[in-house]
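Researcher: I'm preparing a figure for a lab meeting and need a structural model of a single chain. I don't have an experimental structure, so a prediction will have to do for now. The sequence is pasted below. Please return the structure as tokens so I can convert it later.
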Amino acid sequence: MRQLNFLLIFSFGLATVMFTLENTEPTTVRFLPGAAVTLPLAALLLVVCGVGAAAAWVFAVWIGVVKKVELMQDRTEIDAQQVRIRELEDDLQRYRATVDAQLALLPAAGESSGATAAADSAG
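Model: Understood. Here is the structure written out token by token.
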């Protein structure tokens, strides 16, 4: 992928250089009514390419900042979910201990049916 990027950038740069060498006539650029600048076409092209490159760089930095903020928010949510999972696991362990304690207090099913069967046959 890096080779493809290099090839594209090199080709664009070479085309820009060839274009500027062939087009050196002065060109007038009007920004607003009454505001006009006359520059050689090559200089104008370099200025426009520089402004475009700076805009692309600012956009890339902005996207990186937005991604980092989103990543930090996602990380905060994941941490909160991990805490909640630990709390629920602790609750589950407490409930299991409570159920086990209550089951230990109940008479065994085999003992109670055997005792009633013996009492029925004796009586």
